[in-house]
Amino acid sequence: MYVPWLVDAARSTGYPVVEVPGWQTRGHGGMRVVEGVVGHHTATADSAPGDYPSLDIVTRGRADLAGPLCNLGLGRSGTVYVVAAGCAYHAGASRWLGFLDVNDEFLGIEAESAGNGGWTPAQLDAYPKLVAALLRYMNRGVERYAGHKDVCVPVGRKIDPVGIDTAWLRERAANPTATAPQTGVEILERVTVTPPDAGEHVVRVYLAGSAGGAIVIRPRLGGDGFARPMWVSNVFAWGSDRAGVGHNPAQIPGHDPKLTSHRRYDLPGAVWADVRYSAAEPFEIDLVG
Ligand SMILES: [Zn+2]
Question: Where does the record place the N-acetylmuramoyl-L-alanine amidase domain (predicted)?
Fold first, then answer.
């Protein structure tokens, strides 16, 4: 089957849609069934210009693998590129919910990202909307979305899409009203950290890379209304160019690593941050974009 409704589904996201000429009949044969969606990142360098510099490769393929390599592309602006209505070579050896080698069963989205966790706010808004739209057209639930990292065989063969948490995307896809465009001041995500013990550990969080990027670390309140103290010794953050951003609060004179209430750490431009902490109890990290 050559899926006829890809453009209609893509348009229902509200984002611009580019029909790549020939998409209606492009594929390694047709789809056998249409049962779900697999998310990917393109791993093309951030320095490549334009909205969707991977378009040629996902359409025509590379020396070792013939195209199409996805059914849909997602540009930096949130624009959706409709590439192929038939089977695309996107997942390789794979297994998910009883499906095996899912290329002719699951649609593949190749979203433009270098694979360092860097996504534009438009992509973080559009990616779940596109998944939701495709699942709606195939009348399937959000459990039928998975990342390449979830479906690959053997486990660990793939890491994409980096920075797009599967549970986060499903939650957004299931609640379209939660996918309002990001303004730069709202909480993008709340992460619960459960320490394995009271010793020193590091947790990595992923941010949107926006100028207003920050994390807010929130020790939990006990039954007596007081926060359980915890300690944050270092926050190391990186931008999409792999350069360090923000600051290491441990190097600021007078820094007190002990937190007895929430504290904000501004990390402008950060796409990920490592937080070194000690805490006896679970706590929350709010990601602000
Ligand atoms: Zn992939």
Answer: 22-162
